[in-house]
Request: fold
Amino acid sequence: MHKTFLLTGDLLAIALACLAFYVSGWGVFDNAWVSGLTVWLGFAVGLLSLDKTDDDTTIEHKPLPIFHLLLAALFSWIMYVWVGIMLEQEEFFIEITRFDDLLAWMGVAIAGYLTWRYFGIPMLVVFLAASWYVAGPPELLGVGEDWMRVAENLWYSTDGAFGRPVEVVGRVVLVFILFGAILQTSGAGEILLKFAFFATSRFAGGPAHAAIVASAMFGTLSGAAVANVVSTGVFTIPIIKKSGFKAKFAGAVEAAASTGGQIMPPVMGVVAFLMADVTGIPYLKIVVAALIPAAMYYASLFVVVLIEAKKQGIGAIPVEDRVRLLPSDWLKSLAFWAPLGTLVAFLLDGRTPQNAGFAATIVAFGLCLLLFPAFRQPKKWFETLISAGRVSATLMIIVTSIGFVIGVVNMTGVGLKFAEAILIAAGSDLFLSLILVMLGCLVMGMGVPTGAAYLI
Reply:
């Protein structure tokens, strides 16, 4: 029975990855259905994946929490009701019942639970604070909105939990997760590592520099920091430690380098896509604007590694141990460069980011089939889809929670109050206003994901 539930979770993850690919290439067949399916699949995969345990042990030795199964079933019913109501609202005005509102708050509770399990206490605190602020009594620091009105405005609408963050991620971002998973599963990531070591072996502290270069290269095609760490960190961290750096420093270098992938063009983190949607600035312009900050970020990492290497007396990699590139390595590197070129060409041609991601994904899949024999096994394809689906599920969880928080901010007017406070504090000084906003983002970024920090 345990294996049945695991298999169900994997099948749902595959379905989510396939849905993302379909939507990026053929468009949205219905707004309500696409939003409903992506959120439902994301939450279902998230709930079933919790039972794989947090310590990488197999589920064989741990009873499956029936609680999660019940939550998955309940959320399926909630989403069935949500889709039905949203489809009816497209045709005519309907009256939402108190029971429907109760189901909405159950959905909010499940979102809060998954937010806590996947993103920790800080994001949960933000989520709970928003929930209390909008529905709590005024004498206890709330605004006292009617709970039914809150449910109708923030659940059964496109201004709350199912607002723009869900739409942008479901329609644009998820295909890039699949794109990165193809490179990771096929073995293309290992080729990037060889190139990174080849380029940096002559520098003091070479392995640490290689981690930076590899993460920067992978970051050009995947804005997901976690996927970046998984693809490069498992190889680079042990080698960095072996070269003489302390374990903490090795982990810090990889974490910082992988995080930089979120601002590394052309495929940046989810924040860049949200920024394009919120501000109305074309994604290509945001990519161009990020070039200098990204270069400065990675240059600073190089300087830090050089200083630490000199401090600890760590030199370059010995000549006899340096990586040598074979003709086959140059050929296999096409699996990286060709999709990157396709992506840039589509963006320069004025195509949408999702169209560019769709085309690049097809090119990457075809070249990986051609250049990496192991990737021709159907088992590898399923591993790719499952990996992409699980990462996508966590994204859908957080953007649904973020959407709810943003809905609270808009519904209560607290966002305008915050902006007014910044204007009062900074006066007419634009530079000081930017500094205050930057400090706010830094504080938020200490405990919540970048997407949440930007939108909140």
About this structure: Confidence is low (pLDDT under 50) at residues 53-63.
